[in-house]
Structure formats: structure tokens, C-alpha cells
Structures
1.
Amino acid sequence: MKPPSTHSRRILLKRGLALGGVSLLAGCRAEESRPLQSALSAVSRFNDRVQAGLFDPLRLAPTYPDSMIQRPFPFNAYYREDEVPAIDGGSWRLALSGLIADTAPWTRGALLSLPQASQVTRHICIEGWSAIGQWSGVPLGDFLRRVGADLNAKFVTFRCADDYFTSIDMASALHPQTLLALLQDGEVLPRRHGFPLKLRIPTKLGYKNPKHILAVSVGNHYTGGYWEDQGYNWFGGS
Ligand SMILES: Nc1nc2c(c(=O)[nH]1)N[C@H]1C(S)=C(S)[C@@H](COP(=O)(O)O)O[C@H]1N2
Ligand SMILES: [Mo]
């Protein structure tokens, strides 16, 4: 049997995403109904599997010319901009845990000394806005290989300096455009955009791009996320 064409795969993906959208919309009005909630989250779990099955590890997210970069870049978080965590870059360390051979913590300088990649991509927030930006940093796949992570594990989880956390599938973690970003628009990652380290993952929606990362862990147990635990679709493909 012939594999589905890129076009029909895209239609399938849109349908998968639309299913996720229905579950989100309906979730708002159905807080009282437990059976409905669990049926809807079963649809969302199904949607995760559809998206994971359609995910092409080699297909790149669209990139844009520098002239399209939006300045100032919009801010978003689950709190106001004046409550953004203030992190001292000198004493900050990236902690590693789980299925990783070398869990020694990383300084910002050590991360900057690794080969860097950069991208101009569109960040899409589920709240109804999107913006093109430029980010650079260490490809997460290169980093996971360097520290001896188990690349057959299912999940990579990120914990942040605020109460935010999220997790992604390993195939997306190893995608070439998935970056541990240290710079935005050629400058040290601004405080409001996640200093000292954020995940830039252009194949996923904004809420799968954690800012102010403190810790990365690799494992096989589902860990969810801040918004995902409140009903946002876990795979969160864009
Ligand atoms: N630590 C942390 N990371 C986060 C969030 C947050 O509240 N805290 N919000 C997410 C959401 S919903 C979006 S749209 C983007 C916004 O990133 P920006 O401020 O750089 O535009 O950050 C994501 N990462
Ligand atoms: Mo968002």
C-alpha cells in the first residue's frame, strides 16, 4: 500500500487537531460532567497518538526572512509581565535527571561553548496570536546525545523557575529545529522571554516552549504539563 501523500497527511493532521480543538472548547462548558470530561480527554489522548503517528522527524517548520521578525516580540505567561522570575545567570545551573548517563549540571557558559544553531520561525500561541522571531542555542538532540540520554525513552520533561513545566515526546525532542535557546534576536535571552534558557520548538504550539528552564529529565513515565493538566492537548503540534 502507498503511504499517504503529504497533502492527505496534512488533511489528516488538521482533522486530528480539530478533534483536539473540540475537546478544548467543549471542556469550557462541561466542567460539571465527569463522564463527558473523561470522554473528551480520551479524545485528546487519541489525538496525541494521531499527531505522534503523523509527525515526520525530518519535516521542517517554515522559516522566514529576518525582515519578518516581530519587534518587540509579544510576551505571554500565566502571570503578568512584572512577575517574571529574575534569575541570576552566574549562579544558574541546568539540572539533569532520569535516564541520562552524565547528570552533571550545566552552566550558561558551558552551554554557549557548544555548537549553536539558529532559526527564524513562527511562535503560535493557542490564545490566538502568533509572531515570527529569531532564536539561537544548542539543538536539544545534540545535547541529549552528548549527555548520554536514553534516546529510546518516551518523554523529555522541563521544569521552570516559575511553577511552569511541560513535557515532549522523544521524536520531537530530537527534531533538528528543537533548540535549548540562549539568545533571542541576537541578544541574551531577555528576562521576559525566558532568561537564561528556554526551549524553542517550532513544530509545537507556544505552551510547549517552556521559559526559565531549571531542569531537564528523561523518562518513560508521562509527566504532563502546566496547561496540559488543565486540558490543553499534550502533543500540541502546530
Ligand atoms: N516558564 C514558563 N514558560 C512558558 C509560559 C509560562 O507561563 N511560564 N507560557 C507559555 C506560553 S502559553 C507561551 S505562548 C510562551 C510565550 O513566550 P514569550 O513570552 O517568549 O512570547 O511561553 C510559554 N512558556
Ligand atoms: Mo501560549
2.
Amino acid sequence: MVTVDRTRLRAELQTFPPYIPGRAPQEVPGLTPYRLSSNENHLDPLPAVLESLAQPGELPSRYPDDAAVALRARIGEVFGVPPERTIVTAGASELLVALTQITSDNRTEAVYPWPSFEMYPQVTGLAGAVRHEVPLLPDGQHDLDAMAAAVTDRTGIVFLCSPNNPTGPVLRHDEVARFLDAVPSHVLVVLDEAYWEFVTDPDAAHGMDLVDEYPNLVLARTFSKAHGLAGLRVGYAIAQEDVIEGLLKAVIPFGVTQPSQRAAAVSLDHHDEVLERARAIAGVRDEVADALRDQGWAVPQAQGNFVWLPLGELSDAYEEAASQQALAVRNLDAGVRISIGPDEALERVLELSRAFLEEHPDQADHPRSSGRH
Ligand SMILES: *Cc1c(COP(=O)(O)O)cnc(C)c1O
């Protein structure tokens, strides 16, 4: 008898869960379904961006510009850095993979907050690194002292996420500077700023002001959230040239299509409008967060385009209740993350949340979050 062995895959694959994307909403008769599970921008892309996508442009038989010269030049102009200090990737997701690739293997360690972006365990786990998941403080903030203490002489990469996905708070500028002072300068520190455009807290860490001072710091950013181009897959980094040179060896050749590069550059041509729209979404976010707090929910400081309900064991029940209202939310076990969407969707969220609290009054017993600003 022939024995059939399973295909030999790396043992590291057993050490972390797969990335689970946000669900689609359930169809409920009479209700418009809304997907509030992926932190997408609910506004349409800017008209100029849609126009650029409608143009015929380059032939599909041609490879895109591998060096993304025009887009990197535009990023450099907008943020005041030479293009050599930027790189463009297939979403910030590819960047997180590449940053891990250039720093990490099974002899190194990785440090990141938890709960935070689900790709951190995935990318560092696949590299075989020993993972130090440092629990957030009760108010959803990073425990930077514990994170600094988790850094050893084997640490290859540290992730900071501001605003933190999924809980929402930002890191403060002074505390990040102090953290960077405490961490050895050869340890690569990634500041994931996927939601920086939505930040309104004046004390928040401002990556651009830190990246010149700390050569081991990398800013990870994306066109997926504030720019509303998640489907086009464009992310970028700002870092020192030696890190960028390393990244250029680790990214997929021709990973960002020409229409995507062009649309991202056009969106940056209208950067003021992008920021204005992000501020409008931030205003709605503040209203929703305050309304939920007034109902009795312990919503942490919310600085992205989403709010966090720390539901713990009731996360499944809330997700199900939302699903019955044709709303898809993101259930992350420790709680539920809800993206800022159209008004009708958010009104439904508030109604649902009020009814849920009435059925589960002990949820309101949580201490009020300190993040009311
Ligand atoms: C959405 C997100 C990203 C990257 O998304 P891409 O679509 O791959 O650019 C990175 N970090 C965080 C924290 C995110 O929420």
C-alpha cells in the first residue's frame, strides 16, 4: 500500500492564525446592508482619481514602473523628503511583510502590542521570530514601558500602531520619543500610521517629526484608508535610505500596477481635500464615540475611522445582533470594531448598541474610559 504523506510545509505555519478579513453584511429584508468591518472609507474616491482610473493609460501588456518614480517623487514633495527615502508597496501589507523579511528570522524576536493589527503575528510568525505580544493597558493604549522592557539583544523588529487598530487610541509624541530613546538604535521600529490622516489629538505622535531624528524608525502608511483606495493596493514607507535599500530587495518586483500608481499620485495632488474629508469622518467618529459613551459604553479614545467596544465574552452576541440588522462589524474576540460609515448605518449602530446594553446591563459597569477627547 502506498502511504501518502502530507505536503511538507514550514512548522511555523502552526504558530499563528490566518488573517481573517472583515465579513460582508447579511441580507435582511427591508434593510440596506452596510459593511463596517474593514475600516474602508465610505466616501467615494475623489472625482480626479476616478477620472484617472477611467483613462486608458498604459497597455496591460507592459509592466508597471518597478521603481514607481513618479509616485515616489510625489510622496517626497508632499512630505518633504527625497524620493530615495520612500518606497511604494502593494498596500502597507506588503510593506509589513518586507520589513519583517529584512529584519527577522528564527534567531530574532519581535515585539508588538496586543490586541493590535492582525498582520503583526502573521508576518513575524512566518519569519520564525519569537513573538512578544505586549498586552495593551486597560484603556486600549500601548504599554510602552512593558514594550521597552520586552526588547532584548535578539530583537529584530518592533511594531507601534498609532492610532491602534482595533482599539483606537494614539501614541503621544513625547512617549514615542522616550521609547525610541530607550530602545537600542540598531533595532528597527515600525510606526504604523495607517490612520494618521484621521488623528485630531494635538498630542499625538507625529511620525514625520521623529523619522529624521531616529534613523531606526520607519513610517508605514497606506492609500487604503483616508484616500479611499483600498482596492488599488498602494502603501508606502518613509525611512532612512539604508532601510529603503533593504526593502527594495525584499518587495515583489512590479508589485503595484500602473493604474494604482497613477491614481495614488492624483490623490496626493488633492491632498488637502483628502485631509479635509478625513477630518469630516473624524468629526462623525467623535460624535458616535460620545453617543456610545453616553449610553454607558467604555469606548476608548477613538482616533482612527472606527470605534471599539470592549465586549469581551459578549463579542459574539453583539456581532450576531449587528448581523440581524444587516451590519457587518469586526469581531476580534476581545471586542468589536465598528468602522465609521454612512449616517444611516451609524444610526442603526447606536440603536442596536442601546438595545444591547439594555439586555446586558453589566456591560455598562466597566469603568468609564479616560479617552474622552
Ligand atoms: C489597513 C491597515 C494597514 C494596511 O492596509 P493596506 O490595505 O495593506 O495598505 C496597515 N496597518 C494597519 C494598522 C491597518 O489597519
